[in-house]
Amino acid sequence: MEAIEVTDLRKSYGDTNAVDGVTFTVHAGQTFGIVGHNGAGKTTTVECLLGLKRPDGGTLRVLGRDPARERRALAQRIGAQLQESALPDRIKVVEALRLFASFYHRPADWRQVMERWSLSPLARRAYGDLSGGQKQRLMLALALVGDPEVVVLDELTTGLDPVARRETWRLVGDLKRSGTTVVLVSHYFDETEALCDKVAVFARGRVKAMGTPDEIIARTGTASLEEAYFALEGTTR
Ligand SMILES: Nc1ncnc2c1ncn2[C@@H]1O[C@H](COP(=O)(O)OP(=O)(O)OP(=O)(O)O)[C@@H](O)[C@H]1O
To answer: The ABC transporter domain covers which part of the protein (predicted)?
Structure first.
């Protein structure tokens, strides 16, 4: 079953074609990576997937529904950790989890989520007093507290130190094994290569290559996804 189907998606801001005819599908249970440099159209694409932006053209289906028209219904089944996600500094970890659980008709048990993401020792800590890695872990937990079928993670590890980054990778691995469909947006090629079953390499609003990381690497005759990206860029200039 396809969890996500995107066909010829287009979105412009004035003269900027942020997303310029993007097509991809994500199977249920797959971890799908959208990778590319700043301004490639990654965030605009996921904002359309979440129904936060209305496309100018193309079709989108998430769990069989149109996000622009059925955003409320889909919001119950999708979890999102977005780039600008922020919480009030004074909210405590436990309060945030309880609050987010209350948004859903059938949430996960927030206590279990807190335990699973090793947040229990921080339960009474205010958001503003958490380290960068702890904040990110809380954001992930909040994206999952609704027990979603699809989770969108945008720039999950940006700003984290290498240890926190690896720890976050491990958590995404756990999520993957639980059968959740994950869309991972990143400008880190190593992360995408390590975590994703399928990758779309974005550049200037278009998909330059798609497949498993190994397929893309083999097709470009390179040794890593990052090298593959630059090889692809070289051929399109
Ligand atoms: N609200 C907006 N108004 C005008 N231009 C925008 C807006 N949002 C995005 N853009 C432009 O659209 C293009 C794609 O932006 P987008 O944020 O989707 O890229 P991205 O790949 O997510 O980049 P980053 O990695 O920097 O977040 C960029 O040129 C950006 O400047």
So the answer is: 4-229
